[in-house]
Design brief:
Blueprint lengths: L1 H5 L3 H67 L3 H28 L4 H27 L2 H92 L16 H101 L5 H28 L7 E4 H18 L2 E7 L3 E4 L1 H20 L6 E9 L3 E8 L29 H12 L3 E11 L2 E13 L2
Parallel strand pairs: 2-4
Antiparallel strand pairs: 1-3, 4-5, 5-7, 6-7
Helix pairs in contact: 2-3, 2-5, 3-4, 4-5, 5-6, 6-7, 6-8, 8-9, 9-10
Length: 546
């Protein structure tokens, strides 16, 4: 049986214990109810027999006394009316007595012959009453009085004795019922008290056994876990598994802990072996680490050189584009100078040259030369190495940007629509100009691939809460989805004529994110301009205000 208890869960043990106590209480309750029903039957019998019989006998006695009194009234009556009235009352009480005898016959639990004997005596008294009434009607008052006093009294006394026997029996029966009720009540109290004490003892015993079992199992569990921790703390060289015999929750916990102990022990043993291997190779690693710093330094220098090379390539690419822009911007002023000089020479040969004509031609040549000089200054300023941040006005920065690339945009028939707010930034202006030139040139190159007549670039610069957002979008059809995530990669280009280096947008991303603490991103967008729907690429440059 105890092996069975070891194989069930603690919750099941507690439930079984609870049900045992409940069953005991149910048994006590059923027994108490049966005893209460027995007492109820005793009380019912007490009411049906002793109480009812006693009350009925009392009613019979009262009615007999009343009849005897009215019989005296008959004997002492002075006229017929009084006699008739007394006779009526006697008959009325007689009916009551007979009805009471019927109740006695039904309820009396003793010898029925005693009831019949009393009833018979009562019925015989009727003959005496009739004799008295007959004597009164004849006018023999003396005889009627003698019958009433002697023979009538004798029957009434006899009847009273018989009724007293019935009353004594009912009283004795009532006493028996009362004693039985007291005895049963005492038995019930004793059984209930003893049962409650027994149930409490059984419940405490079950609780003690379950608690003792749990405490014992937990003690084993605690010892095993402490031994395991000593093993983990290297206070002992070996660890023993937990001993358990049950299959309840504690047994399952012990099994789980044993599994972990075994697993941990294997890990520790493997770690010891690995530590030995590590110790063997530690010297080799130390030797390798001696050369590691020099190798890291060498790789860092290589990366720095590579980054410098990328910047140099970017500058060279920008320089090539700038030289091409210079050639575009110088073409018209040089043509003007050439035309003015040829005009002076021709007029001189034709002898038509005068002072005003000469001055006009010289002014034209001088203005063109000043324009060429300003162009050189603008490009020289752009190529200055300036790593110091300063306050710049964004509108002015865009004007400087378009001075450098405007000629190519004019010859490409590209419309630039600008919406630039009055914003002041604290940045390196030349690097921002380089980013803007790279993005704008990228948009220009894509627009030149279009066959449609209308080529548009939109520039929006707005001030947000703590940053500036510069959006540059075109209507060139957008970037293919399979390459849009690669446009900021180094040496990635979509130009098939070897005119692209693939580092412009890569350097722009480095400048914005590493030098300016900003962010640059690109996406395709659909928009409507002058009731015409377009698709294009939108580059978004986000820079902090401070």
């Amino acid at each position: 049986m105890f092996r069975f208890l070891e194989n069930i869960s603690i919750v099941t043990k507690l439930v079984i214990s609870f049900f045992i106590v409940v069953i005991l209480f149910l048994g006590l309750s059923i027994y108490s109810l049966s005893q209460v029903n027995l007492m109820k039957d005793l009380f019912i019998n007490l009411y049906k027999h002793p109480y009812t019989v006693t009350n009925t006998i009392r009613d019979i006695d009262i009615n007999i006394i009343s009849m005897h009194r009215y019989m005296k009234d008959i004997a002492l009556a002075s006229n017929t009316v009084e006699i008739k009235r007394a006779i009526f009352m006697v008959n009325q009480h007689e009916e009551n007595v007979l009805d009471s005898f019927k109740t006695l016959e039904d309820r009396f639990l003793g010898d029925e012959k005693k009831v019949l004997s009393a009833k018979e005596a009562f019925l015989k008294w009727k003959l005496i009453r009739q004799e008295v009434i007959l004597s009164m009607k004849r006018g023999d008052f003396k005889k009627a009085a003698n019958i009433t006093k002697k023979k009538g009294y004798k029957y009434i006394n006899s009847l009273h004795q018989k009724m007293k026997l019935l009353t004594d029996f009912a009283t004795k029966k009532a006493l028996d019922y009362y004693l039985n009720v007291i005895k049963n009540a005492e038995e019930i109290y004793f059984v209930i008290i003893m049962s409650v004490i027994s149930i409490m003892i059984i419940g405490l015993a079950i609780l003690f056994l379950v608690a003792r079992y749990i405490k014992k199992q937990l003690s084993f569990l605690q010892k095993g876990v402490l031994n395991f921790f000593k093993y983990l703390n290297k206070e002992t060289n070996d660890v023993t598994l937990l001993s358990y015999d049950s299959k309840d929750e504690i047994g399952k916990i012990s099994q789980t802990i044993n599994t972990n102990i075994t697993y941990t022990k294997n890990i520790i043993e493997n770690e010891k072996k690995l530590q030995e291997e590590v110790n063997k190779h530690q010297l080799m690693i130390i030797e390798l680490n001696k050369n590691l710093s020099s190798r890291v330094k060498e790789e860092v220098e290589k990366n720095i050189d590579k980054e410098k090379l990328l910047f140099q390539q970017s500058k060279m690419a920008s320089m090539g584009e700038m030289i091409e822009n210079i050639a575009h911007q110088w073409r018209q002023p040089l043509s003007v100078i050439s035309t003015a000089a040829m005009g002076v020479k021709i007029k001189d040969e034709l002898d038509e040259l005068n002072k005003d004509s000469l001055n006009y031609s010289m002014d034209t040549i001088n203005n063109s030369v000043q324009h060429l000089s300003q162009t050189i200054t603008d490009f020289r300023n752009f190529f200055k190495v300036d790593k110091i941040k300063k306050e710049i006005v964004l509108i002015n920065t865009f004007e400087k940007t378009f001075k450098l690339i405007s000629s190519q945009f004019r010859t490409s028939s590209i419309t630039v629509i600008k919406n630039i707010e009055d914003i002041t930034l604290h940045e390196m202006e030349n690097e921002l100009i380089q980013v803007l030139i790279n993005v704008l040139n990228n948009a220009r190159d894509e627009l030149l691939k279009k066959t449609e007549a209308k080529k548009i670039i939109f520039i929006n610069a707005t001030k947000k809460e703590k940053f500036v957002e510069i959006c540059i979008k075109d209507n060139a059809g957008g970037i293919p989805t399979e390459i849009i995530n690669k446009v900021f990669s180094s040496h990635f280009t979509t130009k098939q004529d070897s005119s692209g280096t693939g580092i412009g947008l890569y350097m722009s991303k480095m400048i914005v994110e590493e030098h300016m603490n900003g962010k640059i991103e690109v996406e395709n967008c659909n928009f409507t301009y002058e009731d015409i729907s377009y698709t294009g690429a939108q580059f978004k440059v986000i820079l902090p205000l401070s």
